[in-house]
Amino acid sequence: DAGVTQSPTHLIKTRGQQVTLRCSPKSGHDTVSWYQQALGQGPQFIFQYYEEEERQRGNFPDRFSGHQFPNYSSELNVNALLLGDSALYLCASSLVIRGGDTEAFFGQGTRLTVV
Amino acid sequence: GQSLEQPSEVTAVEGAIVQINCTYQTSGFYGLSWYQQHDGGAPTFLSYNALDGLEETGRFSSFLSRSDSYGYLLLQELQMKDSASYFCAVHGGATNKLIFGTGTLLAVQP
Questions:
Q1: Which of B45, B99, B101 sits opposite A104 (nearest CB)?
Q2: How does pLDDT run across B43-55, given as a tens digit for each residue?
């Protein structure tokens, strides 16, 4: 049973460029959340997708956008990259059930470096 | 604002017991989770408390006191492989929007 998979694992981009990161959730999961983790910090919630809609959003600018596909996979897009966007981007999947979501399973992340 | 406080670093020896504390101040609270993250790796779920009290899962136990906005993770019979960062995370609601603490780096020494 494949867990959460993310691609690419590493990426280097130039300031001002745009980037797309991809995530496939754990088999059986229908919800995908994205987090940004700066070096030495805890993950920060960006947004969550369920039924192809943005379900919740954290305190991130509109430069951060996403999408969820019918097969539950998801993309994170970041426009107009800034040096401060350099971080590990984590995807987490879970399943919506009555009473609350199941535990979140995380992928290995995409290490984005903006130069 | 929302904040979770954890000690930044803890050092212990193999075979010992260590407790990592977490105090939180959030606008909503649905439960407290603990995650382990090895350097550069994926955070791995360890434990979840929605109600006050102790939850035990093998060598790991987690405690929650909602009245004190406080929880801790207890690791027993420490092994070298337990060296990692440990994060507490508040569930702000029924969804898995997690608010993470800054993490505690645990170093297990022989």
A1: B45
A2: 999 999 999 999 9
